[in-house]
Amino acid sequence: MLFSRFKNQLPTPEEALEGRPERAFTVPDRHTVLGNPLLGPYPDGLEIADFGLGCFWGAERKFWQTEGVWTSLVGYQGGHTPNPTYEEVCSGHTGHTEAVRVVYDPKVVPYTTLLKLFWESHDPTQGFRQGNDTGTQYRSAIYTHSPTQQQAAESSRDAYRTVLHNAGHSDITTEILPATGRPFYPAEGYHQQYLDKNPTGYCGIGGTGVSCPIGIAKADG
């Protein structure tokens, strides 16, 4: 019963698992597709964006295929438990969502283009699920790294909400919060660039088919 409850309700800090002071596993040094470091250090001039849009296997591939993305990695964000494991996150007892960290060159790909890809690559109206994947770890989220990102994310949400409503969809449930105080914990090595290592692996990512009215061009669906 407790497990079932936390698949549909976020735990409080007091209810969350205790976690640990350090990661319980190692993370690979480099991106298997882009060849650049996963954990940094990152070159000057690059920026970071964090997104949650369902199962992070397919979500990460959406971003690493985007020109201007220097590296990407998957992890857990927005919860209470420090240094969680995949099994702990999937239990619903940590409060995290599956997230993708995107390190990008804003001179090549502006943040608004990443936002457009984010909105069009999943259904942001589904609450604690994404397609057939159910649980709080699949909720839609944007964690911002500056006031400029926060404003852009909120503006894009408002614009997309209007066109979704016009297309008959329900309201957006995406949480948009500062990344400060919501650390990104990298996931286990086998999750990193999963669909590069397993090209026929599971990908639960799918959009609404409604174009988001920001950015340069409609993202591939």
UniProtKB/TrEMBL annotation:
A Gene Ontology term for the protein's cellular component: cytoplasm
Comp. bias regions, Polar residues: 1-11
GO biological process: cellular response to oxidative stress
Active site annotation, chain numbering: C55
Record family assignment: Belongs to the MsrA Met sulfoxide reductase family.
Organism: Streptomyces glebosus
Alphabetical list of HAMAP family matching this protein: MsrA
Renumbered residue ranges of the record's region Disordered: 1-20
Protein name: Peptide methionine sulfoxide reductase MsrA
Chain ranges of the Peptide methionine sulphoxide reductase MsrA domain: 50-203
UniProt-recorded Gene Ontology molecular function terms: L-methionine:thioredoxin-disulfide S-oxidoreductase activity; peptide-methionine (S)-S-oxide reductase activity
Gene (UniProt): msrA
Catalysed reactions listed for this entry: L-methionyl-[protein] + [thioredoxin]-disulfide + H2O = L-methionyl-(S)-S-oxide-[protein] + [thioredoxin]-dithiol; [thioredoxin]-disulfide + L-methionine + H2O = L-methionine (S)-S-oxide + [thioredoxin]-dithiol
Keyword terms, alphabetized: Oxidoreductase
Pfam family, one: PMSR
